[in-house]
């Protein structure tokens, strides 16, 4: 008597109830009973596509049981429940030959021991593979069309800031999003914001606490600015890219403005700026990596090594730290507290000057103009996609026009990344006394560091004069504006 393993699989279970798998198992058990066999085990992969390439744990367990001789027959509803890939099918055929396994399906028996049976299995497998590919193509076209119409995408947890219908704004969550947007544009780090949200017990839609990665995805999403973005699933293998293509205005209302969203997307997608804002949790020295050793070398050039914070005899200092194999000279150091105060006063003095205000205002006007150009190009891309979908232009025409617009869009976004610091500084700027008070009482370390980084490229530190206890002339500022 054959020891049967029943294999059931359904690609998509929207309810999570497993009803499709249960129906398959019932039909398979009826077939086993008619054949006079015995069910040894049931292997069910629910909500897993055989075409997607994802792991099927129960499928793998069944193959192992065949190899170990625990089962010598497999019953499934149809051969496409087993596999939709020719490679996997050939593996099943080879395994059946080695272990004398019989295969039966509710929709018709297939004898893998005969050449004709193998041929039928391969034909059915090829047909199933073709249908899976056509289905995937239809679904991809449908997803793209829905995106271009600004429609809601289904699946997964509801987006933060919106109700279960994904359209209605949840006001208390929207207030959090607006607050976070303002704090990020003022230079606060993602880690700092996440810690604050946890202290206030502000949670994600799934009930967890915010992490920098999840907060970054939320704030970089075009959704919160009332725009629909689309990322084809074939365009990535594992992790979805942070930014998708903005293809239309959405059917849901905005929480933050398009200008704010574009600034956040530029900020959060830039590797250099993301490194500054993401993980400063362990940074106890304000100017680490901004101060640069300016001790002259034998060839007349400067050391140029980024200085880091290290204590000596209990006193925090910035040093050019020379480790084995490092090009650092190790010859420059400065007391952290006096240096932080001096740099603060120099930066706040510069920010209080009319010249700096004029430069920042001009730069912010450029930001606004760039945002308008970016929005116009994104609209052009969406219109081109609609024209291509309606066959108003050929694919070649669509590709040619799209290439030009995307190149211009990429250039303007790059400019926007370089100018993102201007709105942040304009939100902070005031009189020297006012800024000093806010620096001491209102700002956290990540916000202070962001203001420094938005104001200076670097600060050269020359070796100390042993005759002077404190020498402000050692510091050479390389100003951004």
UniProtKB/TrEMBL annotation:
InterPro entries: DNA_bind_recomb_sf, DNA_bind_recombinase_dom, Resolv_N, Resolvase-like_N_sf, SSR_resolvase. The lineage of its organism: Bacteria, Bacillati, Actinomycetota, Actinomycetes, Catenulisporales. CDD domains: Ser_Recombinase (cd00338). Residues 3-150 form the Resolvase/invertase-type recombinase catalytic domain. Transmembrane segments: none annotated. It comes from Actinospica durhamensis. It comes from the Bacteria. Residues 159-274 form the Recombinase domain. PANTHER family: DNA RECOMBINASE-RELATED, DNA-INVERTASE FROM LAMBDOID PROPHAGE. Residues 130-157 are annotated as: Disordered. SUPFAM superfamilies: Resolvase-like. GO terms for molecular function: DNA binding; DNA strand exchange activity. PROSITE patterns: RECOMBINASE_DNA_BIND, RECOMBINASES_3. Residues 130-140 have a biased composition (Basic and acidic residues). This is Recombinase family protein.
């Amino acid at each position: 008597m054959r020891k049967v393993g029943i294999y059931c699989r359904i690609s998509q279970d929207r309810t999570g109830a497993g009803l499709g798998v249960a129906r398959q198992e019932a039909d398979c058990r009826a077939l086993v009973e008619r054949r006079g066999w015995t069910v040894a085990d049931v292997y069910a992969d629910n909500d897993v596509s055989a075409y997607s390439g994802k792991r099927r744990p129960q499928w793998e367990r069944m193959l192992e049981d065949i190899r170990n001789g625990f089962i010598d027959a497999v019953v499934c509803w149809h051969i496409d429940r087993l596999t939709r890939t020719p490679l996997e099918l050939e593996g099943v055929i080879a395994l059946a030959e080695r272990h004398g396994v019989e295969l039966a399906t509710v929709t018709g028996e297939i004898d893998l021991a005969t050449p004709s049976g193998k041929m039928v299995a391969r034909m059915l497998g090829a047909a199933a593979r073709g249908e899976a590919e056509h289905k995937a193509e239809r679904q991809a076209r449908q997803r793209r069309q829905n995106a271009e119409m600004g429609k809601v995408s289904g699946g997964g947890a509801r987006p933060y800031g919106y109700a279960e219908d994904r359209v209605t704004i949840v006001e208390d969550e929207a207030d959090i999003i607006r607050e976070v947007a303002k704090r990020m544009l003022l230079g606060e780090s993602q880690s700092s914001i996440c810690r604050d949200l946890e202290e206030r017990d502000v949670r994600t839609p799934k009930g967890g606490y915010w992490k920098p990665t999840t907060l970054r995805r939320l704030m970089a999403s075009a959704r919160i600015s009332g725009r629909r973005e689309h990322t084809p699933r074939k365009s990535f293998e594992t992790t979805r890219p942070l930014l998708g293509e903005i293809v239309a205005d959405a059917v849901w209302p905005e929480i933050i403005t398009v200008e704010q969203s574009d600034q956040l997307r530029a900020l959060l997608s830039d590797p250099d700026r993301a490194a500054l804002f993401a993980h400063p949790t362990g940074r106890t020295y304000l100017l680490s990596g901004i101060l640069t050793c300016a001790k002259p070398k034998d060839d007349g050039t400067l050391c140029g090594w980024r200085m880091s914070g290290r204590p000596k005899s209990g006193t925090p200092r910035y040093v050019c730290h020379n480790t084995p194999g490092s090009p650092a000279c190790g010859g420059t150091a400065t007391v952290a507290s006096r240096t932080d105060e001096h740099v603060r006063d120099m930066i706040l003095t510069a920010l209080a000057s009319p010249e700096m205000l004029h430069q920042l205002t001009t730069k912010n006007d450029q930001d606004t103009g760039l945002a308008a150009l970016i929005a116009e190009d994104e609209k052009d891309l969406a219109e081109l996609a609609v024209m291509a979908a309606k066959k108003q232009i050929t694919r070649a025409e669509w590709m040619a026009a799209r290439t030009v617009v995307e190149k211009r869009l990429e250039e303007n976004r790059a400019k926007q990344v370089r100018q993102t610091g201007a709105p942040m500084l304009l939100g902070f700027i005031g009189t020297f006394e006012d800024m000093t008070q806010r620096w001491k009482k209102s700002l956290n370390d990540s916000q202070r560091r962001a203001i420094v980084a938005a104001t200076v490229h670097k600060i050269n530190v020359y070796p100390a004069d042993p005759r002077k206890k404190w020498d402000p002339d050692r510091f050479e500022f390389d100003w951004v504006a």
